[in-house]
Amino acid sequence: MTISLRRARTIIRKALEKGREMDLKPLSVVVLDAGGHVQAFEREDGAAPGRFAIAHGKAYGAVMLGMSGSAQMARAEQQAYFMAAVNGVYGGQVVPVPGGVLLRDKKGTVLGAVGVTGDTSDNDAAAALAGIEAVGLVGEA
């Protein structure tokens, strides 16, 4: 199973709605499929143009390592050498902080990941989870 374009767009729309509801700074949201490929991306007006790389890095690390951004951050704090090696393997594309959320179906199968950036990492993760829950899937933040 994979994440459809329709569901990816809904995740993005609902994540951005959550950001506005929480009065967050302008967000950027990317949805990756299980292979780490971009399915959809949007950047709100006023969001810095470099935010795509950050959102992508959060989601990419989650899907490629099979662990949430918060789990990656904990691992980086405990074993910085491991995350440095991972970033070397993946060409520096991994951003190991909250806001990278694994996207699973109800059976636990990884369908991809969502990356949100623009506010604090914890707020980014909350927006991602709102988008994921809106399409009936499970997020692992």
Task: Outline the structure in words.
The protein has 141 residues and is α+β, with helices and mostly antiparallel strands. Helix content is 47%, strand content 20%. It contains five helices and five strands. The longest helix is centred in the N-terminal third of the chain and has 17 residues, at 5-21.
Question: What's this model, at a glance?
Answer:
With 141 residues, this protein is of the alpha+beta class. It contains 5 helices and 5 strands.
Which helices and strands occur, and which strands form pairs?
Blueprint: H1 5-21, E1 28-33, E2 38-43, H2 51-65, H3 69-78, H4 80-89, E3 100-104, E4 110-117, H5 121-134, E5 138-140
Antiparallel strand pairs: 1-2, 1-4, 3-4, 3-5
Helix pairs in contact: 1-5, 3-4
Q: What order do the strands of the largest sheet run in, or round the barrel if closed? A: 2-1-4-3-5
Total helical elements? 5
Order of helices and strands: HEEHHHEEHE
Strand content: 15-25%
- The termini sit apart by 21 Å
Poorly predicted tracts of residues: none
Shape: globular
Q: What's the pLDDT, averaged over the residues? A: 97
Quaternary status: single chain
Radius of gyration: 13 Å
DSSP strand count: 5
Helix content: 40-55%
> What kind of sheet is the major sheet?
5 strands, antiparallel
The structure class reads alpha+beta
